Amino acid sequence: MIRNIGRNVPCWCKSGKKYKNCHMWIDEKIKNYKKQGHIVPSRRIIKNEAQIQGIRESGKINIAVLDYIAEHMKSGITTEEIDKMVYEQTTARGGIPAPLGYEGFPKSVCTSINNQVCHGIPSEHVVLEEGDIVNVDVSTIYNGYFSDSSRMFCIGQVSRERKKLVEDVKKAVELGLEQVKPWGFMGDMGQAIHDFAKENGYSVVVDIGGHGVGLEFHEDPFVSYVTKKGTEMLLVPGMIFTIEPMINGGGEEIYVDDDNGWTVYTEDDSDSAQWEIMVLVTLDGHEVLAY
Q1: Model pTM?
Q2: What's the confidence (pLDDT) of residue 96?
């Protein structure tokens, strides 16, 4: 519910500007879309300039940590070693690994290999081998602001099918990103990703998706990649969320490891891949804050 406020009072976003010089015109557009029956974001989802800058700085650390991991990724290292690198590189830059202790998660990063869809837990007993594909999902807290992105890595020579899956999922994210613009819809992005995945013989995980991020690790909205153009939440300047489709080489069905309660696998043991970026909706398009 958007409450009416005076034109000359401080804007609700705490930017320090008068409402008429800040979010008044945006609120009016949101009201019009809501009258048409569209899902619109609440004010708590929309970030102000200071918050965006804080999240942007957090994203810089997230990118730097993933760059470091990329330089050291090779066959023979354990996922525990990756976890140690993430912790050391994040804290050395003044950040905090967001996954560590989050709802009981025991490590600083998620490392998901081959048929693991997401939330793989690093272990000294898990060694990366020639031919593996692995997703490294890094999330950072810096000065109270959150960032989140992940990358896929091919270990040595991988099969043609695995290499294509990794490359195609990245293409899917890029196609989805092209649809992120103010006054579009989440469904525009979701359909672009889903259509591309299906055209290439893949399936998209339905029950796990992206999320808002910035002031908390996970915020509204839930971001689905099996949606239709013109549906889902209206995209408004100041929204920040992740694009992170989990795309399977086989069927879409998944299950959670009973032993650790975290790691998600493909039901049919097919490979899964995921790239994650964090994107800001701007006045004239979008800005990628972490990749």
Answers
A1: 0.95
A2: 98
